[in-house]
Design a protein that fits this description.
By secondary structure, the protein is of the alpha/beta class. It is 33% helix and 20% strand. Strand 4 and strand 5 form a beta hairpin.
Length: 239
Protein backbone atom coordinates (compact mmCIF):
# COMPACT_ATOMS: atom_id res chain seq x y z
CA UNK A 1 0.00 0.00 0.00
CA UNK A 2 1.20 3.50 -0.79
CA UNK A 3 1.90 5.41 2.42
CA UNK A 4 3.70 8.50 1.10
CA UNK A 5 4.87 10.18 -2.08
CA UNK A 6 7.21 13.00 -3.00
CA UNK A 7 6.83 14.74 -6.35
CA UNK A 8 9.92 16.52 -7.68
CA UNK A 9 11.08 17.99 -10.98
CA UNK A 10 13.89 16.23 -12.79
CA UNK A 11 16.05 18.71 -14.72
CA UNK A 12 19.76 17.83 -14.54
CA UNK A 13 20.21 21.52 -13.63
CA UNK A 14 18.89 20.56 -10.19
CA UNK A 15 22.38 19.11 -9.63
CA UNK A 16 24.63 22.08 -8.74
CA UNK A 17 27.64 20.59 -10.51
CA UNK A 18 25.64 20.58 -13.74
CA UNK A 19 24.14 24.03 -13.22
CA UNK A 20 27.51 25.60 -12.23
CA UNK A 21 27.05 29.37 -12.11
CA UNK A 22 23.28 29.12 -12.50
CA UNK A 23 22.92 26.81 -9.49
CA UNK A 24 21.44 29.47 -7.11
CA UNK A 25 18.43 29.87 -9.41
CA UNK A 26 17.12 26.47 -8.28
CA UNK A 27 18.06 26.70 -4.60
CA UNK A 28 14.40 27.04 -3.59
CA UNK A 29 13.46 23.99 -5.65
CA UNK A 30 16.29 21.94 -4.12
CA UNK A 31 15.21 22.94 -0.63
CA UNK A 32 11.60 21.97 -1.36
CA UNK A 33 12.74 18.59 -2.72
CA UNK A 34 14.68 17.93 0.48
CA UNK A 35 11.55 18.72 2.50
CA UNK A 36 9.49 16.37 0.32
CA UNK A 37 11.96 13.53 0.83
CA UNK A 38 11.71 14.16 4.57
CA UNK A 39 8.05 13.21 4.32
CA UNK A 40 9.05 9.91 2.71
CA UNK A 41 11.53 9.15 5.47
CA UNK A 42 8.97 9.97 8.16
CA UNK A 43 6.55 7.45 6.64
CA UNK A 44 9.03 4.59 7.35
CA UNK A 45 8.31 2.65 4.15
CA UNK A 46 9.35 -0.93 3.51
CA UNK A 47 10.20 -0.08 -0.09
CA UNK A 48 10.96 3.17 -1.93
CA UNK A 49 10.44 3.30 -5.68
CA UNK A 50 11.79 6.19 -7.74
CA UNK A 51 9.67 6.66 -10.88
CA UNK A 52 10.36 9.04 -13.73
CA UNK A 53 10.25 9.48 -17.50
CA UNK A 54 12.53 6.99 -19.20
CA UNK A 55 13.92 9.23 -21.91
CA UNK A 56 16.28 7.59 -24.39
CA UNK A 57 17.42 4.93 -21.90
CA UNK A 58 14.15 3.07 -22.19
CA UNK A 59 11.42 2.11 -19.73
CA UNK A 60 11.55 -0.70 -17.23
CA UNK A 61 12.73 -1.62 -13.77
CA UNK A 62 16.11 -0.51 -12.46
CA UNK A 63 17.26 -2.55 -9.45
CA UNK A 64 19.01 -1.20 -6.40
CA UNK A 65 22.60 -0.29 -7.16
CA UNK A 66 21.87 0.91 -10.71
CA UNK A 67 24.16 3.76 -11.68
CA UNK A 68 23.54 6.99 -13.54
CA UNK A 69 25.96 9.52 -14.93
CA UNK A 70 25.92 13.23 -15.72
CA UNK A 71 28.83 12.88 -18.13
CA UNK A 72 26.54 13.86 -20.98
CA UNK A 73 26.24 17.28 -19.34
CA UNK A 74 29.98 17.72 -19.05
CA UNK A 75 30.20 16.65 -15.41
CA UNK A 76 32.14 13.64 -14.18
CA UNK A 77 29.56 12.72 -11.56
CA UNK A 78 28.17 9.21 -11.08
CA UNK A 79 25.25 8.39 -8.78
CA UNK A 80 23.87 5.10 -7.51
CA UNK A 81 20.26 4.21 -6.78
CA UNK A 82 20.46 2.80 -3.27
CA UNK A 83 22.68 -0.12 -2.37
CA UNK A 84 22.83 -3.29 -4.42
CA UNK A 85 22.38 -6.70 -2.83
CA UNK A 86 25.84 -8.22 -2.56
CA UNK A 87 24.45 -11.56 -3.75
CA UNK A 88 22.92 -10.06 -6.90
CA UNK A 89 24.77 -9.43 -10.17
CA UNK A 90 25.73 -5.82 -10.82
CA UNK A 91 23.02 -3.94 -12.75
CA UNK A 92 23.98 -3.41 -16.36
CA UNK A 93 21.62 -0.63 -17.48
CA UNK A 94 22.31 3.04 -16.83
CA UNK A 95 19.64 5.09 -15.11
CA UNK A 96 17.61 7.47 -17.27
CA UNK A 97 18.37 11.13 -16.52
CA UNK A 98 15.21 11.53 -14.40
CA UNK A 99 16.14 8.62 -12.14
CA UNK A 100 19.73 9.82 -11.94
CA UNK A 101 18.45 13.13 -10.58
CA UNK A 102 16.29 11.16 -8.13
CA UNK A 103 19.31 9.15 -7.03
CA UNK A 104 21.24 12.39 -6.55
CA UNK A 105 18.44 13.75 -4.34
CA UNK A 106 18.47 10.61 -2.21
CA UNK A 107 22.24 10.89 -1.79
CA UNK A 108 21.89 14.57 -0.93
CA UNK A 109 19.45 13.72 1.86
CA UNK A 110 21.53 10.69 2.95
CA UNK A 111 18.64 8.28 2.46
CA UNK A 112 19.20 5.36 4.80
CA UNK A 113 15.71 3.96 5.04
CA UNK A 114 13.99 1.33 2.95
CA UNK A 115 15.53 -0.44 -0.05
CA UNK A 116 15.32 1.59 -3.26
CA UNK A 117 14.35 0.58 -6.79
CA UNK A 118 13.74 2.58 -9.97
CA UNK A 119 11.00 2.55 -12.58
CA UNK A 120 11.48 4.23 -15.93
CA UNK A 121 8.09 5.14 -17.39
CA UNK A 122 7.57 5.48 -21.12
CA UNK A 123 6.58 9.07 -21.80
CA UNK A 124 3.75 8.03 -24.15
CA UNK A 125 2.36 5.26 -21.91
CA UNK A 126 -1.44 5.35 -21.98
CA UNK A 127 -3.29 6.51 -18.87
CA UNK A 128 -4.89 3.12 -18.17
CA UNK A 129 -1.53 1.36 -18.34
CA UNK A 130 -0.04 4.01 -16.05
CA UNK A 131 -2.82 3.33 -13.55
CA UNK A 132 -2.22 -0.43 -13.66
CA UNK A 133 1.51 0.07 -13.21
CA UNK A 134 0.86 2.24 -10.18
CA UNK A 135 -1.49 -0.30 -8.64
CA UNK A 136 1.16 -3.00 -9.08
CA UNK A 137 3.75 -0.79 -7.38
CA UNK A 138 1.49 -0.14 -4.41
CA UNK A 139 1.03 -3.88 -3.94
CA UNK A 140 4.76 -4.57 -3.78
CA UNK A 141 4.98 -4.18 0.02
CA UNK A 142 2.88 -3.33 3.06
CA UNK A 143 4.34 0.19 3.14
CA UNK A 144 5.43 1.60 -0.23
CA UNK A 145 6.71 5.14 -0.84
CA UNK A 146 7.15 6.79 -4.23
CA UNK A 147 9.59 9.47 -5.32
CA UNK A 148 8.03 10.68 -8.56
CA UNK A 149 10.24 12.68 -10.88
CA UNK A 150 8.74 14.75 -13.68
CA UNK A 151 8.58 18.19 -15.27
CA UNK A 152 5.60 20.16 -16.48
CA UNK A 153 5.34 21.91 -19.82
CA UNK A 154 8.49 23.12 -21.54
CA UNK A 155 6.68 25.90 -23.38
CA UNK A 156 6.20 28.71 -20.88
CA UNK A 157 8.41 31.34 -22.59
CA UNK A 158 9.97 32.05 -25.97
CA UNK A 159 13.31 30.85 -24.57
CA UNK A 160 11.88 27.59 -23.23
CA UNK A 161 12.99 24.32 -24.85
CA UNK A 162 9.64 24.05 -26.63
CA UNK A 163 9.25 27.77 -27.35
CA UNK A 164 6.11 29.61 -26.23
CA UNK A 165 2.73 27.90 -26.24
CA UNK A 166 -0.14 29.85 -24.70
CA UNK A 167 -1.74 26.65 -23.44
CA UNK A 168 1.22 25.86 -21.17
CA UNK A 169 0.32 28.17 -18.28
CA UNK A 170 -3.16 26.71 -17.83
CA UNK A 171 -1.86 23.14 -18.19
CA UNK A 172 0.80 23.68 -15.54
CA UNK A 173 -1.64 25.41 -13.22
CA UNK A 174 -3.99 22.43 -13.42
CA UNK A 175 -1.13 20.00 -12.78
CA UNK A 176 0.11 22.02 -9.82
CA UNK A 177 -3.37 22.11 -8.26
CA UNK A 178 -3.77 18.37 -8.75
CA UNK A 179 -0.38 17.52 -7.27
CA UNK A 180 -0.81 19.91 -4.37
CA UNK A 181 -4.28 18.58 -3.56
CA UNK A 182 -3.51 14.88 -4.27
CA UNK A 183 -6.40 15.01 -6.74
CA UNK A 184 -6.29 11.54 -8.28
CA UNK A 185 -9.13 12.16 -10.72
CA UNK A 186 -7.51 15.28 -12.14
CA UNK A 187 -4.18 13.50 -12.56
CA UNK A 188 -5.73 10.39 -14.09
CA UNK A 189 -7.58 12.45 -16.70
CA UNK A 190 -4.69 14.64 -17.84
CA UNK A 191 -4.76 15.04 -21.62
CA UNK A 192 -1.87 12.87 -22.82
CA UNK A 193 -1.87 14.41 -26.30
CA UNK A 194 -1.72 17.94 -24.93
CA UNK A 195 1.00 16.96 -22.45
CA UNK A 196 3.05 15.53 -25.33
CA UNK A 197 2.60 18.68 -27.41
CA UNK A 198 3.70 20.80 -24.44
CA UNK A 199 6.66 18.48 -23.76
CA UNK A 200 5.41 17.76 -20.23
CA UNK A 201 7.54 14.71 -19.43
CA UNK A 202 5.94 14.21 -16.02
CA UNK A 203 2.49 13.26 -17.31
CA UNK A 204 2.96 9.48 -17.33
CA UNK A 205 4.82 9.25 -13.97
CA UNK A 206 2.12 11.41 -12.36
CA UNK A 207 -0.54 9.07 -13.67
CA UNK A 208 1.41 6.10 -12.29
CA UNK A 209 1.30 7.89 -8.94
CA UNK A 210 -2.46 8.39 -9.26
CA UNK A 211 -2.89 4.66 -9.84
CA UNK A 212 -0.71 3.78 -6.87
CA UNK A 213 -2.59 6.14 -4.56
CA UNK A 214 -6.07 4.74 -5.25
CA UNK A 215 -7.69 3.94 -1.91
CA UNK A 216 -4.70 5.16 0.12
CA UNK A 217 -6.40 8.33 1.40
CA UNK A 218 -3.28 10.47 1.09
CA UNK A 219 -3.36 14.24 1.57
CA UNK A 220 -1.19 16.53 -0.57
CA UNK A 221 0.84 19.61 0.24
CA UNK A 222 2.34 21.97 -2.35
CA UNK A 223 5.92 22.94 -1.52
CA UNK A 224 7.13 24.76 -4.65
CA UNK A 225 5.94 25.92 -8.08
CA UNK A 226 7.82 27.97 -10.66
CA UNK A 227 9.08 27.99 -14.25
CA UNK A 228 12.57 29.53 -14.04
CA UNK A 229 13.66 28.28 -17.48
CA UNK A 230 10.28 28.29 -19.14
CA UNK A 231 9.66 24.74 -17.83
CA UNK A 232 7.03 24.04 -15.18
CA UNK A 233 8.53 22.67 -11.95
CA UNK A 234 6.33 21.50 -9.07
CA UNK A 235 7.32 19.97 -5.74
CA UNK A 236 4.68 18.38 -3.53
CA UNK A 237 4.44 15.81 -0.76
CA UNK A 238 1.63 13.33 -0.07
CA UNK A 239 1.18 11.63 3.27
Amino acid sequence: MLVAAAICPCPPLLVPEVATGAAPELDAARSACVDALGVLAAARPDLLIVAGPAGTDGPGVFPAGSEGSFAGYGVGLTVRLGEADAASPAPERRLPASLAVGAWLLARTRWAGAPVEGLGVGETLAADRCARAGQELAARADRVALLVMGDGSACRTVKAPGYLDERAVDFDAAVTRALGDADLTALSTLDASLAYELKAAGRAPWQVLAGAAQGAGLVGRLLYEDAPYGVGYTVAAWS
